[in-house]
Amino acid sequence: MKQFPSRSRIIENAPIDWQHSTPVSEQFSDVYFSRECGIEETRYVFLQHNKLEQRWSDCSVRSFTIAETGFGTGLNFFCTADFWQQQKQAKKLHSDAHLHFISAEKFPLALKDLEIACAQWPEFEWLSSHLLLQYPAPVKGIHRLYFAEPNITLTLIFDDAITGLANQEGSVDAWFLDGFAPAKNPDMWQPALFEHIARLSHHDTTMATFTAAGSVKRGLREVGFTVDKVTGFGRKREMLCGRYTPKPKQHCRELPPNSKPWFHFDYHEQRQASGCVAVIGAGMAGATAASSLARRGWQVTVLEKENTFATEGSGNPTGITFTKLSLHDTPQNRFYQWAYLYACRYIKTVFQTAGIAPGQDWNLNGVLRLAFTEKEAKDQADLLRESYWPESLLEPLTRDQISQRLGVESPFNGLLLHGGGWLHPATWCRTLLAHPNIKLETSQKINRLIPHDGRWLVDEHGPFDAVILANAFGCQQLEQARHLPLKPVRGQISYLPATDASARLQHAINYHGYINPAREGLHCVGATFNPRSQEQAQQLEDHQWNCEQLRSTLPALGDALRLPFTAPPQGRVGFRCQTPDYLPIIGPLPDETGYRQEFDDLGKGFLKRDFPFGPNHKGLFVTCGHGSRGITSTCFAAEILASYISGEPQPADRDILFAIHPARFLIRNIIRRNS
Fold first, then answer.
1. What percentage of the chain has pLDDT greater than the value 70?
2. Which of 391, 583, 576 is closest to 489 using CA atoms?
3. What gap in Å lies between CA 204 and CA 628, rounded to an integer?
4. What average pLDDT does range 309-329 have in this prediction?
5. Is residue 302's pLDDT more than 60?
6. What is the pLDDT of residue 2?
């Protein structure tokens, strides 16, 4: 058997020695929080010395971002979130104000240890209970969680702090430099850490840390912080706090070609806390984008050309949130896998917050991926051998176990992807668009985007501070986006009436096609993939293909559904909006003329010079080209766009952002000297 280095994404949980009610790190021989008064210590060191009470006493504050090194037990997060909520209840903060808390943790606590820690602080149960429900499996990467009641986003970076922050883009308002003391954890307190802290900071960003070590003080000063040594907490004599005061032009806007400056974005300069935004399109791409900005306090107008939402590409009766796992660590694979993990958490949170229980319109009870070919069986075996994901996310099942779950015989083994599942796209869009900050206007065909005093008019609508194009092929009807290479891929699904036997099906099943549990008496079976056909009408041969894929993969289920059919089933034809590289287009909309002027030297081979950041249409953004994976990718895309617009750190690493950047096709054409 071919041998290759381990490519597991599983990371090591922190080994904890519980000394009575105090967690002690076995790795660093240090406590996670003060044995006597951990809450008071957090409030003193981090909240007081980042001056959060003063900064959060003005209703003009609409968003705030805190970044932390070392999540640990979550105590700093709980104290901060609790104080944020208190300020809202005292009406010192606007009710729409949004807090983003980011924390890098190389060795996260296991869920069982986090449960023990949380039980010690019953005053935070209103928040910790939601954290425990969403707490990510120990998988390396960026995990974004949402807490609806206080309107807080928590981004957990399960990685070394230096590596995790190196891949971050965005702007931070305050730093909690936690983690174990430099003497016990010297690998974290390195010059590279301070450099990334400075890169993500803006003028007036503050920091606080429990340590008073000279190396930390010098490191922070060298990257642009003014640092003060002040009285520490309790028996700790001293600690450090400070403010970022960068030198002029410290944030460079010109970079060498290997840094790909054409994809860089100036978060510090272009960040905006709130305003008015237009979202063109009310399908899943538009609804998720509108929701992500609305909960950040933006006033959102959604303009839809049809007479209702979720038509066209979002009009299927059911769809799956799913990802195809791969051992190849490429930006494309990471995008879809991180998008999947985010969508699983976010969809469940939104539906539960809205009081919509799983059952009729959604259920994220897992997706079965059958080992339906020799190649698929080998790929699944490789994933399991490498322990790619923990069994809490990826559970191997024998054919007998699958047969028991399905209620019909399966000839194949497979994997159960926990957290994934199916939903009704129209219900999903309706739930997202119900936010009070969102206004939906239907029957609005948009023809022009017009610059207007630094803002945008959308035909007669506006002006708007920002505009998001989420209208699939409709993007190409607008002058600023005509260069986007979008292509239609025809797909046809079939509706099969449920029988007594098939109605027991509880899981979405993925093979060369897919079948979902019955909704309103019909199973959705699909789907064909034909980029060469523009036929709008349903085709008999496509229904036959859908049914034959199901019947040949799961003969017993085919029999239960009385296949082959005696009369052609009903179904639906849709056209996926696809890109040449099968990745969606997400990010700031490039100015085609400006790009060709600024980067013309790339096509001439003149690479020994610095290039400027890409010239984008300020305030214009796009999310399209999601193809057949829109349920999974649009949730993640919405957070990426909201992070661009608000200046918050991103939920994806730099390589992913570059891989999905709207300018990637322009740059390729410039390099190849294509028109």
1. 97
2. 576
3. 44
4. 92
5. yes
6. 39
- Intra-chain end-to-end CA distance of the chain, in Å: 48
* Cα dihedral 203, 204, 208, 211 sign: positive
Alpha carbon 545 to its chain centroid, in Å, reads 34
CA distance 202 to 208: 15
Is residue 321 predicted with pLDDT exceeding 90? yes
Which residues, other chains included, contact 322 with Cβ-Cβ below 8 Å and sequence gap of 6+? 340, 367, 369, 417, 420, 508, 510, 629, 632
HSE-up of 24 (CA within 13 Å, CB side)? Answer: 10
Contacts of 396 (CB under 8 A, 6+ apart): 380, 384, 413, 414, 415, 416
Res 21: pLDDT: 78
pLDDT digits (tens, 9 = 90+) for 569-593: 899 999 999 999 999 999 999 999 9
Q: What H or E segment, with its residue span, contains residue 597?
A: helix 592-598
If phi > 0 it is left, if psi is from -120 to 50 it is alpha, else beta; for residue 499 that is beta
Is residue 583 within 8 A of residue 492, CB to CB? The reply is no
Q: Which two tokens stand for residue 126?
A: 């209103």
DSSP 358-375: SSSSEE-S-EEEE--SHH
Q: How many CB atoms lie within 10 A of CB 385?
A: 12
- pLDDT score at 675: 66
Residue among 169, 173, 164, 200 nearest 265 (CA): 169
pLDDT of residue 1: 35
Interatomic CA distance for residues 242 and 245, integer angstroms: 9
From CA 456, how far away is CA 211, in angstroms rounded? Answer: 48
Sheet with 455-458: list strands edge to edge: 449-452, 455-458, 461-464
670 contacts: CB under 8 Å, gap ≥ 6: 595, 596, 599, 600, 602, 603
For 640, the token pair is 């990426």
Indicate if the pLDDT at residue 26 is higher than 90: no
3-state percent breakdown (helix, strand, coil) of the chain, nearest 5: 35, 25, 40
